[in-house]
Structure formats: structure tokens, C-alpha cells
Amino acid sequence: MFSSKFFPIAVIVAVAHANTASNSQVLRRHPPTPSTYPLGNACGNEWRYLNFNPSDKTDRKRLRKLHEVICDGELHKIASYGRKSAKGTLAPYKRYFPQSDDKNDFQAQVIEVLDLIAGSDSSHEMAGDIVRTFVVDNVDFDKDENGASCDDEAVQAYTEIDNLDHREKIHFCNNSWKKLKAADVKCSSLKHYPSRRMETFSLIVLHEMTHYSSVGPKTSLGREIVDEENKDGKDAYYPRRVHGLLAKDQDDRPEKTVTNADSYAWMSLDAWISHLCSGSWIDNQWASYFTQNPPAYERGSSETSDLDSDLDLDLSSDSDSNSDSGL
To answer: Which end of the chain is more exposed for a tag (fewer CB within 10 A), N or C?
Structure first.
């Protein structure tokens, strides 16, 4: 692993040769080596960075956001509260995952996945050991491979193997950078069920980390975590569809929840936002902050169609919001 002082040189060298081609084209022909955090000291088990220009204002903001989501502890908090919810079979867990039975120890599978990412609560590290092997690439590297691409407005990020340098990497699209920190979520605007009103950047980060091929197969789950589909053939994204994957009166596909990335992300965020907004620090009372499950998803609709109703900010009715709570 290169130290941070070498990373700007790799970028500068690539840019210096950009006489007739765009910088991204040059970087694709001569991919540099991933670096540790180039703007200062990396924290314990921080991921690595590729194709960021530390002299560029936009890249610096992105680097700080990627650094802070791990080093300020938000990723650890949402993953560890997801793990806590699974261990105690609390309400957030039961909203998205089935309880273990004689055939499948679903809870153990979820706990093991989140263990890898969260790491130990008693450790000085800010994430699990596996996170330091993850790479974030600032270049939309899959764009020319007919795979995931940020040209699709519905794509916020993707995790793929780059055919050029044969590395598995995460890329965040432009629409992901504006997402909130969990501490900036307004509890008073939330409904009585989890919704996209509380969507955060850390949720997207956790979703993508679960996709890594070194995560699911390393646990008792034994296979990669993907984007599962609901019965109508649409991806199981966001609370309504993720809950619908499990709900008996909707898809009733409990076995697919443990291989669906958004199930881990939304369950964990549900747990952490519940903790933040409940105002209760006694036992596990925070777990009942959301008193309802998400409404049924609309069959045949795109995953973004639920966004309008979830983000309807008419808070005049007490039945529409948790207006008695707030940070």
C-alpha cells in the first residue's frame, strides 16, 4: 500500500500527459495505484482512494466526505446498530429480515456480514479489517463496459471489477454526494415508518460494501450479496420494496433478504436513526421509534416512484410524521 505522499504524484503524472485526451482517458490508459487518504492521516482500516486529484476543489470535498463517513464513526455506528438489532431480534431487524428457523440461521448470517464491516465495538479501528482492502475510484470506470454507469440517473453508486486494472472497486455517482449525514436528518420530518426522507450517504456506502465479493462468501451466507428483485421484476431498493421482499402479503421471499444489499443498508440505518431520534437511551426502547412498517410498494413502478410520496413534506397531520421527536 502506498503512503499518501505518493498519490498526488500519480495523479499529476497522469494529468501531465493529457495533451490531446481528457484526463479520465489518460487515467484509464495508465491507471495509478490506490492510495491511503491523501489529505492527511488515515484512520484505522480506512479504505483506499484512486483517481482523485487533491488539488481539485471538488475532489477534495469528495475525499473529505469519504474519509469522514468512516473516520467520524458514522459507518461503524449504523453497521453496529444493525448488528445489535439482529442480535436482539429487534423491530428494525424484523422489518427487513426473517427470524432464524431450523433450516436457516438468518440472524447469524446478517450478524456476520455486519461484523466484517463494523469491526469490534471495543477496537480503536473505525471499521472492520476488510474495509481497508476496499477501493473507491473517482472515475466512472464501468461506463465503457456496458455495465453499471452513472449515465443512468437511478444509479447512485456501483461495485464492480474493472477490466482494465482487474481490481474490484466502488464508484460513487454525482447524485450520491449530496446525501446527508445521519446527524443532519430531521427527526421531525420523518413518518411513522422508515422512508427515503432519512436517506444518507452512509447508507449508500454500506450498501456498496456489502456487494464486495470478499464479504458474503466469507460468512456462513457463503455467497455474494447482490441486488435482488421483487416479484414484479424491479430491484428491491428502498424501504417499501425491501420490506416487501419479506412481507408475507407481498413477495414473501425471506431467503432473498439475506442476499439483498439494500436490506442490510436500510435495516442498519433504520436502527441508527431510531436510536438518534427516539431520545431514549434505556435498554432497547429506541428500537420501537418507528411504529409502522413501510407501506406496500406499487407493483410495476420504478424504485424512484415511491420517492414522491415518501418525500411529501406536508407535515400538517400527526399521522404523517413523528413531529414530537427531534435531534
So the answer is: N
DSSP helix/strand/coil, 241 = helix
Handedness of CA 61, 62, 64, 65 (dihedral sign): positive
Segment 275-312, tens digit of pLDDT: 999 987 788 999 999 999 999 999 987 655 555 455 54
User: Which residues lie across from 170 on neighbouring strands?
Assistant: 136, 159
Q: How far is CA 177 from its chain centroid? A: 12
What pLDDT, on the 0 to 100 scale, is given for residue 301? 79
- Nearest Cα neighbor of 52 from 211, 185, 208, 169 is 169
Q: Which segments of the chain have a pLDDT < 50?
A: 1-21, 308, 312-320, 323-327
- Residue 327 has what pLDDT? 31
Burial of 105 (0-12, 13-18, 19+ CB in 10 A): middle
Burial of 248 (0-12, 13-18, 19+ CB in 10 A): exposed
Calculate ∠ Cα 36-37-38, nearest 5°: 105
Cα–Cα distance, 114 to 261 (Å, whole number)? 11
pTM of the model: 0.86
- 10 burial level (CB within 10 Å; 0-12, 13-18, 19+): buried
For 15-21, the CB contacts below 8 A with 24+ separation are 15/53
Which H, E and C letters describe 87-134, residue by residue? HCCCHHHHHHCCCCCCCCCHHHHHHHHHHHHHCCCCCCCCCCHHHHHC
pLDDT for the residue 27:
56
Q: What are residue 160's DSSP bridge partners?
A: 169
Question: Where is 7: in which H helix or E strand?
Answer: helix 7-16
Residue 300 has a pLDDT of 86
Asked if 83 and 118 touch (Cβ cutoff 8 Å), the reply is yes
- Rounded to the nearest 10 degrees, the angle between the axes of helix 261-278 and helix 238-246 is 110
